[in-house]
Amino acid sequence: MPGMRRIPAVLFFSFALETGLAWHWDSPAGRLRETLFADSGEADQEETAEPPYQRIRRNNSGFNLEFGFVSFDREPHSVRFQMDQRIVNQAITEFGYTDAGLEAVDTWLEETQQQTNRDLKRDWVSGSVSAKNQAELDRKVAAVRAHNTNLETAQRRKIKDLQTEYEERRVAYFQRQGFKLLPGNTVTVDIPALVRNNVRRLMPVAAQFDLIREKNNYGSEDLIGAVTAMIQTALEYKIPPAMEGSLHTGGVLTPIKALVSGWGDCDTKTALLASILLNWDAAKIVGVGLPGHYVMGFEGVPDRGDAYIEYRGTTYVLIEPAGPAWAHPGEVSEQTMTKLQLAQGVSIEPFSAP
User: Is the peptide bond before 329 cis (omega within 30 degrees of 0)?
Assistant: First the structure.
């Protein structure tokens, strides 16, 4: 879960609590497996496995990936797709900020202020003033004072404008790197932007789920459930570090890095799930930021006992993408429900396709 999040000014929650939802570990048979191959092209010696499982093979052009899982109708499935190395590299390198990047903005401000001070010193009038008489002297002194006063006024305006531009440059730098700068200099991952930037890159994954949908005659909620089950169970739950070398990541992996790594945490998996689902134009999704946690909601009609929120006149059924519990859409943990009911530090972030 990335940094601080704030609740919007107008936000209405309602929950379905009839059944007293509890977090369970009703995971389908099988165990999570990871098989990661280097560029050598080594062949897989275990071609069959009980889901959930993952196979991640690296080759000269990128990655061959396979994830096995059991959907919520208890049907076993697998998806197989490729990720080009160029796309993987692009998705990874465009995300994250560095202290050096921030220092470059600070350096711009310092150098620009110094140049402004040099300009002021150059144009400032000082020294003695000569005149033929007192009246001329008074006029010249008044002109010098007015000139210098105008310079001081312009200098103060320039400094103020520079400060504004400096703050805009900092905001823009964080935005380019996939982050938001909040009041109080709080930095947080921009999850909606992360999703938006990766939707089209995950078309190969969505295409595999289209085949599952057609083969099994799945409706939209069955399809959402199938993608959710894969992300919950076939990808391990693991919390990313806040930094990788000199790169600040906010403790989040990009969706593609999560796939080729085979793991992620709550916000990483939420971004991955949303990035896949938004390949279907009808999908309407929000991220729900909670203190220390992140979940997702999709537009739908909740069944009895489903956890949901209402946001801007639309009902969203909640999903816990993190796993490793095999939790149906509409089923969230008791901890999540408690945080939602308290409604403190909760924020809603609409996701959209590019």
Answer: no
